[in-house]
Specification:
With about 210 residues, the protein is an all-beta fold. It has three domains: about 10-45; about 50-115, no CATH class; about 120-200, no CATH class. Helix content is about 0%, strand content about 60%. The chain has no helices and 20 strands. The strands form five sheets. Strands 12, 13, 15, 16, 17, 19 and 20 form a seven-stranded mixed β-sheet that branches. The chain is elongated. The structure holds zinc ion (ZN).
Length: about 210
């Protein structure tokens, strides 16, 4: 804010009063310029937060909810929102023309697509027995680190991880956090070799 007389931005708020209409929050201010002593009034208005639809995916399932957002708020894919008690990450934004965009002000939106950040990460494991592939699904802590080369036990199978598929790429070396991993590929090992961790209790039951 600037003084209408001298243009200074050294402004002091003498008085502020908040009012509210059906769709707007109105802030009435009495201000004083500390450079030229002019006292002046200013009214600020903000659109009130309104309900936006959010579809939250939790692995294979999804649910519909609503979130209150200021219509002029800028939203981007990757932002974390709080829906009730749940932290969700925006995965896509659908605007009024039916297009999916990476960034928009809320008033353009029809639906916010998001994924829950409060549930474990889920990924597949494929262990290749020369063409016959054993597949499992596991849930682990989102920040659990999987490193290529790790020796893992799952039920009575021992295997070494030789590659990973993440949301963005295929990896043959290095490591990734579970929350970005889609699938882990392994080569079977002889029984009872020393292993780094056991994922048996993390197996997702097929009824899920
Ligand atoms: Zn002034």
């Amino acid at each position: 804010m600037r003084c209408p007389i001298c243009g200074s931005d050294y402004i002091e708020i003498l008085k502020s009063k908040n009012e509210s209409s059906k769709t707007q929050e109105i802030e009435k201010l009495i201000l004083k310029c500390n450079d030229c002593e002019t006292v002046f009034r200013k009214t600020l208005t903000h659109d009130k937060p309104t309900n936006f639809r959010v579809i939250i995916s939790e692995h294979e399932k999804s649910k519909k909810d609503f979130i209150q957002i200021y219509p002029d708020e800028m939203l981007s894919v990757g932002d974390i929102l709080k829906v009730g008690e749940e932290n969700v990450k925006i995965t896509s934004l659908e605007n009024k023309r039916g297009a999916r965009v990476n960034k928009t002000q809320a008033f353009n939106l029809v639906t916010i697509w998001a994924s829950s950040q409060d549930i474990p990460a889920r990924f597949g494991i494929s262990i290749d027995y020369h063409g016959r592939v054993l597949s499992k699904k596991v849930d682990v802590e989102r920040d659990f680190i999987i490193t290529i080369g790790d020796v893992v036990k799952i039920e009575d199978v021992y295997f070494r991880i030789n590659s990973l598929k993440t949301i963005e790429r295929k990896m043959r070396k290095g490591f990734a956090v579970a929350s970005v991993i889609k699938r882990v590929y392994g080569k079977p090992l002889p029984h009872k070799v020393p292993y780094r961790y056991d994922l048996t209790s993390n197996i997702v039951k097929s009824s899920d």
